[in-house]
Structures are given as C-alpha cells and as structure tokens.
Amino acid sequence: MDRQHEVPRIVAGVDGSPSSRTALRWAVGYAGLVGGRVDAVTAWEIPGEASWSAPAVDATLDQEQAERLLVDEVRTVLGEPGSLLVNERLVHGPPAEVLVHAAQGADMLVVGSRGRGGFRRALLGSVSLQVALHAPCPVTIVRPDVSVA
Predict the structure, then answer these.
(1) 100-130 burial by CB neighbour count: b if 16+ within 10 A, else e?
(2) Residues 102 and 39: beta-carbon distance below 8 Å
(3) What is the pLDDT of residues 80-97, one digit of tens each?
(4) Residue 54: pLDDT band with limits 50, 70, 90
(5) Helices within 35-138 (DSSP H only)
(6) CATH class of 3-46+58-142
(7) Distance of alpha carbon 127 from the chain centroid
C-alpha cells in the first residue's frame, strides 16, 4: 500500500501531566478529523539509570508502574474502555529520544508544553523543545489550557 492511502498516524507523548492529557485529547480529536489513529507513547526510565551511581531498583516494578500510568492516563483522558483510535505504547528510554524515534514515519507528533520535568529538565532543555528540534515530522505542542472541541 502506498503512503498516499495509509491511515494517518499521530504520535502523542503521555507522561501524566495536565499538558500531556490535553495533548492526547488534541491528538485523538485531530485523528478523528483526518481519519487517523494515535500511538499514545510513554517513555520509562529506571530512576538514576543515566547516572554512574544508579541505586538498586526493581526494573520490572518500574516498568509495571509505567504501564499502569499509560493505561490510566488513556482511560482518564478518553474514558472507559478507551478509543479504538488509540494504540498504547510503552518504550524504555529518555522521553525526547523515545518520542523522536516513535515519530519515524508518523504524520504528526503531539506533545504537551510542560511535562513532569522540573528544574533538572529546565537546565537540560524540555522534551517539547527537543522533539520540536529533532522530530522527523511536524510537531504540535499543546498548552494544558487549550480546549479541544
């Protein structure tokens, strides 16, 4: 099937923040307008894994928590049992890197303007800025106060 006849694919970054909830709503609304589907992507990392002195943690438990977060977020945003337009994906790695990779071949990447980061993320650069600079497709950055019709 050539690209012209494929269903549009929209990737939405999900991290549990109000901004990412709004971004997921926006992505699903947009997918409905263009006859597309949404990949709701959550990146998970083991706390401290980028550090040379990472604490001992249970990676399975962290992955399970991330899976629960993703399922809960999709249900919170879209209701039970969720939307047929949405495919939930949990990927291990740094959020910006995961989202840029997930956006390969996508028609659009949608992220919130402010995620769960904090001062540490501000020093390193936000995920929304990094994906805007490196994504292989158009990027929509949604503020948490934007209403979706």
Answers:
(1) bbbbeebbbbbbbbbbebeeebeeeebbbeb
(2) yes
(3) 655 567 899 999 999 999
(4) very low
(5) 59-78, 95-102, 119-124, 127-134
(6) alpha beta
(7) 10
**Alpha-carbon gap, residue 9 to 37, rounded angstroms:** 5
Distance CA 112, CA 71 (A): 18
To the nearest whole number, what is the mean pLDDT of the chain? 79
Confidence of residue 64 (pLDDT cuts 50, 70, 90): confident
What's the whole-model pTM score?
Answer: 0.78
Q: Which residue has the tokens 């928590």?
A: 65
Expressed in angstroms, the distance from the first to the final Cα of the chain is 32
Closest CA to 87 of 5, 7, 2, 3: 7
